[in-house]
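User: what does the whole thing look like in 3D?
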Amino acid sequence: MENRPLEYDYTVAKMFMFTTIALGIVGMLIGVILAFELAFPGVNTILGQGLAEFTNYSRLRPLHTDAVIFGFTLSGIWATWYYVGQRVLKVSMAESGFLMFIGKLHFVLYMVVVVAVVASLFLGITTSKEYAEFEWPIDIAVVVVWVLFGVSIFGLIGIRREKSLYISIWYYIATFLGIAMLYLFNNMEIPTMLATNAAGESGIGNWWHSVSMYAGTNDALVEWWYGHNAVAFGFTVPIVAMIYYFLPKESGQAIYSYKLSLLSFWGLMFVYLWAGGHHLLYSTVPDWMQTMGSIFSVILILPSWGSAINMLLTMKGEWQQVAASPLIKFMVLGSTFYMFSTLEGPIQAIKSVNAIAHFTDWIVGHVHDGTLGWVGFMIMAALYHMAPRVFKREIYSKSLMVSQFWIQTLGVVLYFTSMWIAGITQGMMWRAHDEFGNLAYSFIDTVTVLHPYYAIRGVGGLLYLVGFLMFAYNIYKTMSARPVEESELQNASPMGA
Amino acid sequence: MFHWLEKHPFFFAVGVFVTIAFAGLVEILPNFAQASRPVIGTAPYSTLELAGRHVYIKNSCNACHSQLVRPFKSETDRYGHYSLSGEYAYDRPFLWGSKRTGPDLMRVGNYRTTDWHENHMKSPSGVVPGSIMPAYTWLFKNKADINTAYAEQLTVSQFFSTPYNKPVPMKDGSTKIVKMGASTAEANALALAEAKVIAADMKDQDVKDAVANGQIPEIVALIAYMNSLK
Amino acid sequence: MNIAELQAYGYFALVLLLVVVLYSYIYHLYSTDKKKGGHDYEKFSNMALNDDIGDAPVTPMSDDKEK
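Assistant: Here's the predicted 3D structure for the full assembly of 794 residues, as structure tokens:
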């Protein structure tokens, strides 16, 4: 035992890889069900009238968003953190019993929170604030889980051998700090059990119920400052952390410009948080904030494209790798979708465009080309890269990966094109007037017209889910594939036929 | 200086935090100084309305319905006067929504009736042909949680001075007093009195019987809330 | 002076500060590595490329007292 050379310890990374896949399947499956419920309302009662309360669109919708954000994506972030963190700091978790304990505790508590969230959302226990639906007891548990993540980050940094912090570590630190600040301020609430009345009664009603400390417009402002930046620090910052590690490592190419990556980092940190106001254009928040949100959204193109272009240029002169390796394909298409959605977002944030786009499916389409094309592809690529190194086996099937790539790409394209058309169609119909100045369409006209697009979107989502199941199968089979030597793991991941 | 920061994680983290927090400090904090003041005509929710609001939230109605009328002709034509900030003064949480799969409900109380809601909740496509909204039949069976709504009233009146049992100015110059019970029993009695008015306009015999027996189905509370949205 | 005015002055001062910091950072990044004794930022990419536990760190912890 004592004479074994020191190795990186991926125990915790493996646990989070498992939840990434499991919760990914759950979240995406619910998403596909939701998509078909909109296209074919009969699906709402798919388990019969008796269970309709738990299978109808509105009850499932928060489950979908929270399962993919806080289930799939967050697990993916942690799986990669417990892998990348050790490697770029050149320190093994096996060297610290304390950090190993924290890591495992982190996972166990996270599982507890996941169960609590699923149960409470099914029961309709929600604060209604998007991506912050959890009531106060779960909020407290979330804070504990987050603190453990922080202890893990700074603990590992504390015992590092590499003095400088690699750019990915910067992004992980920013993820930790950003979400911590946003989550705390957005979830300021008072449990209603604390109130007492004139008759001296207290603890009235449900103990888990709480009321927001902010009212109306202020509540909206804080919520979208959170909601927008939960996207920033959940879907952008940690995913950039991943690609800055996995793309150079898998391709064996140094980052095109390390300096550009640093500049983009500070740019992204500073600019992103201003842009939350673009969710509230033409609402009752002060006009200057709306304008500020619009302007900063456009400025946001610069740091976003700084990272994305840096990634694409890393492949300069090595484009044959894109053709040869499905793993590189995922990452390169991921960066491309990142560029695409960080251009689309600012366009939607322009006030006159937003007047049409807001409240429509175009927004839904935008979210999904970012999440399916960028976040999903990048997390799957990261797990594909990690699997051979964690299990010391080659990836089960390269051809399966290739077919998965094309199936999912087709799925994403069907998804966002149908949502573009649906969103713009509906936005234009809402505002159409006839020659006498009356509204040209009743609301239901603008709903029935969307049916074909909803159906296409459902198919697109289904294709993506099928691809994800192929991914899950591939990773599962990898665990019993051909064992590989350490030397095969330098850069490009070994793959079976 | 910059390179030093890159090697010292603690100070680096402080630097990142300041950069991140900057926008919030400049953009959001100052607005809180000007706390949202209610416009004339905006009153706090009654116990039953608040219980209905909880039903609305429990079923995530806000996933498909907005409560925000933007200042465009097409929207004011369709939904009524555009939204004013003070109209939301008692909304904790806000329910603006982010997606309008169904129509806006900001002023639904102006143009829909108890009767309409009852039929619509049982069979949306029966009332609006082509509707993709699912039926909400369980609202007719589940009972509304009046105690929790009452606890919330107590909380907001204690912590945020929401004016319950106090005169609130109305648009026509009169004043309105929204009552809050002094005890749980009184709060339930107030809610039931309100529920009886709603149930009188409804046809569902089970709902009528429940209210007559002193129970309040969720649908009654929800309709009370919807009727209050004006 | 009300809060909005204070905000405006504060905002202007901060924008000025940020412009100075941003440009000095860019200057720092793109000038130091050419001079002798400066930092070669591009070598930091190697932290990802040579990340086996046995690989030599790009800047070992023991370099603490080099300056």
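In plain terms: The CA atoms of residues 23 and 30 of chain C lie 11 Å apart. Residues 1-46 of chain C form one domain.
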